[in-house]
Specification:
Distance between the termini: 20 Å
Oligomer: single chain
CATH topology: Cathepsin B, Chain A
Protein name: Peptidase C58 YopT-type domain-containing protein
InterPro entries: Papain-like_cys_pep_sf
Largest sheet: 6 strands, antiparallel
Order of helices and strands: HHHHHEHEEEEHE
Structural class: alpha+beta
Radius of gyration: 15 Å
Organism: Burkholderia ubonensis
Number of strands: 6
Shape: globular
Number of domains: 1
Strand content: 25-35%
CATH architecture: Alpha-Beta Complex
Length: 173
């Protein structure tokens, strides 16, 4: 469910050229979409998210779920906070504005989680976590992620809050 919510948040920004917060407000207010996603979660045999045993969905399942958009898989990262922050910041900086990323994190106890990072066309760098909501990390984004502040604090919280083992950053276009 977290992957589908993340892709919906990113896809709406890409398709409609709206801000990170407009896409978030639309997502949480779209009861029909939320009911459809919840219903899909209940279909064990047809839902790849329920069959993923050791992390987020694999590449084939990602393509199936995100068929409206293309995912370009990026580098993997370890559970070391600086490594995860470096990889995600480099991906964001190399893409420029706007840029949209799904980050699949694999958890030490097994399973996984999906979050999104986006730099919208208005220069807002934001994180979307389906469990917690939207956080504007940097505004304005001027071509590089400001390190040593909010961005790194958010990454630290993700790693320790979710007990992250490793993960991968995928560009959504």
């Amino acid at each position: 469910m977290c992957f589908m919510l993340t892709i919906e948040w990113l896809s709406y920004m890409i398709k409609n050229h709206v801000s990170v917060d407009t896409s978030f407000i639309r997502l949480i207010n779209d009861r029909i979409l939320l009911k459809q996603i919840a219903a899909q979660q209940r279909h064990y045999l047809t839902n790849p998210l329920n069959t993923a045993t050791s992390g987020p969905v694999d590449d084939r399942e990602m393509v199936e779920l995100a068929s409206r958009k293309s995912l370009t898989h990026g580098p993997k990262f370890s559970f070391v906070p600086s490594d995860m922050a470096d990889v995600i910041a480099q991906q964001i900086d190399s893409c420029g504005r706007p840029g949209f990323f799904e980050v699949g994190i694999f958890l030490k106890p097994g399973g996984g989680h999906s979050i999104g990072f986006a730099v919208d066309m208005f220069g807002n760098l934001a994180l979307f976590d389906p469990n917690f909501g939207l956080a504007i990390i940097q505004t304005p984004y001027l071509g590089s992620v400001q390190r040593g502040g909010v961005f790194d604090d958010v990454i630290d919280e993700l790693i320790y809050g979710y007990d992250v083992n490793d993960g991968e950053c995928a560009r959504v276009s």
